[in-house]
Amino acid sequence: MKSEYGKFGGAETVKLINSAGMSITLCALGAGIMSITVADRDGVAREMTRLDDGGYANAYHGLTIGRTSGRIANAEFTLDGNTATLEKNNYGTDNLHGGKDGLHGKIFSMRLENNDKYTDVVFGYDSPDGEGGYFGNVKFEITYRVYDSENKFAIHYYAAPDRKTLVNLTNHAYFDVSGDRRELVSEQYMYLNASRYGELNERLIVQKISAVPPQFDFRTPRKIGEYLNDENVQRYTLGYDHPFFLDGRGTDKLACSLFSELSGILLEVRTTYPCVVIYGDNYGGYKSVCFECQYHPDGMHQAADDCGVCSPDKPYSETTEFSFSVK
After folding, report:
1. DSSP letters along 109-125, please?
2. Are 286 and 226 in contact (CB under 8 A)?
3. Would you give the distance in Å from CA 22 to the centre of its chain?
4. In this structure, are residues 164 and 135 in contact, taking their beta carbons and an 8 Å threshold?
5. Cβ atoms 206, 225 nearer than 8 A
6. 145 cis-preceded (ω within 30 degrees of 0)
7. Are 272 and 249 in contact (CB under 8 A)?
8. What DSSP string runs through 134-173?
9. Residues 216-237: what's their mean pLDDT?
10. pLDDT in tens, 10-32
């Protein structure tokens, strides 16, 4: 595995190039993804992430989101009789993506661990009690495992708190598998292993979980744009910005995929999380799509069995895997 080091905004970066031809550039600011390149069916290296709208870290591009991702109603939650008061940065009422003090803006430590099959890039950050309004001191480790002989990487999320608290981590990379901004993502084919989705209110808070109607059913791959102008898809969100609840979880099960006929590139996503929020770049012109694998964003308020509560006896540990191939 080849590695090249640099700086961005005062934070360390590393570019890894594997023997299969994939490159990935990671940054300690937000423990995030700056760039991914893979070869298309003609052997031309293509950029898989959309950074044309202000670059890395703009609009959460590529960043780790936490301590919680998504929207928490009324910007509060209660654990063991204690209430956490969070920033109200969603319509002045709810919390979105952990607020301005979220992990997306933190500079993490970075180290590399190598072996013959893969390289781990381990980002670390110690979040103090009360940061962003959350309970507990929490040690975070975000590990990117980049495989050498195949175009695949995994993100492992780990959090060790010193008291019971709420964590819900994801990555906010924007994908375009045509490569190099050559077509809108609305022309690309998406698959989702999800028979249920979250219906949203005007503040994009989940109101109830329902069976997917045709406009939200991607269990057979189809173009993202097929129902994009449908009133139910456009209502409040101007496109897809909804949580989908997976019918199976684990890195041995396909959660979602994205395919471009133009490039022949197929992205497959597998995850141990129960949910993936699909965000279709609705305010940027449908140029890309985010696969935000996570827990139910507002699960604390909706009696979700698995919502991200962790403790010293039960640390947080989840994995999402991304793999690229050519059809």
Report:
1. EEEEEE-SSEEEEEEEE
2. no
3. 20
4. yes
5. no
6. no
7. yes
8. --S-EEEEEEEEEESSSSEEEEEEEEEESS-EE-B-EE--
9. 97
10. 999 999 999 999 999 999 999 99
Tell me how far apart the 2 most distant CA atoms of the chain are, in Å: 59
Q: Which residue has the tokens 């939650």?
A: 77
* Identity of residue 127: S
Q: Tell me, what DSSP letter sits at residue 65? A: E
- Segment 51-96, tens digit of pLDDT: 666 689 898 999 999 999 999 999 999 999 999 999 999 999 999 9
Please give the single-letter amino acid code of residue 86. Answer: L
44: Cα separation from own chain's centroid:
26
Pairing mode, strands 2-8 and 95-96: unpaired
| Beta pairing partners, 84 | 77
Q: What is the pLDDT of residues 112-161, one digit of tens each?
A: 999 999 999 999 999 999 999 999 999 999 999 999 999 999 999 999 99
The C-alpha angle 213, 218, 219, rounded to 5 degrees, equals 100
The answer to whether the beta carbons of residues 292 and 171 sit under 8 Å apart is yes
Computed over every residue of the chain, the mean pLDDT equals 96
Task: Judge contact between 51 and 278, C-beta under 8 A.
Answer: no
Quick one: DSSP state of residue 131?
G
Instruction: Report how far residue 68's alpha carbon sits from residue 83's, in angstroms, rounded to the nearest whole number.
Output: 15
